[in-house]
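User: Good morning. I'm curious how zinc ion would be positioned relative to this chain. Could you predict the structure with it bound?
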Amino acid sequence: MMDTVDDDLDYFEVMAVADLPPSEPNRADCLGVSITPRLQILGFTVRQPCCWYHERDWSAISEAAVAILGQASKSGIVRAKDVYKFAQDGIRASGLQGQDRHALYELLCPGIALMVGPSGKGYTNGQHRGQAMKDLNVKRTVVLRWPPMTGEESPCS
Ligand SMILES: [Zn+2]
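Assistant: Good morning! Here's the predicted structure, ligand included:
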């Protein structure tokens, strides 16, 4: 009988954005390249984002996620889906509004969180967010991890 990976064991961890893998050119023009999503004109920051992902305030969103993850950890909450349940009050209290708040929900939702491949190369999910974070010089964020599959447990080995 083959064991399956228990998604209850998925967990979040803080990761430096500089350590996120590069994005691959894909269906969006802003993937696979570095862009400047905010223009500085005459000392003013002009918001001219290229897309929804590059429009978000990922520094604020990521720091809110890191803070919520820290609070969850202090409460002994580790599993990703439990963190997501725990996070609901913190997300509402984060001060983020509208689409930035929605992005925070997504960053802490196990099904659509930022997921770096097991080898640390490429993304399982979230490469557009990762590229936007890099382009916006975000320092750190929260990524979903899972215990490595070993030996006979892995159907792919
Ligand atoms: Zn983009």
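The first strand starts at residue 11 and ends at 16. The first helix runs from residue 52 to 55.
Let me know if you'd like a different ligand tried.
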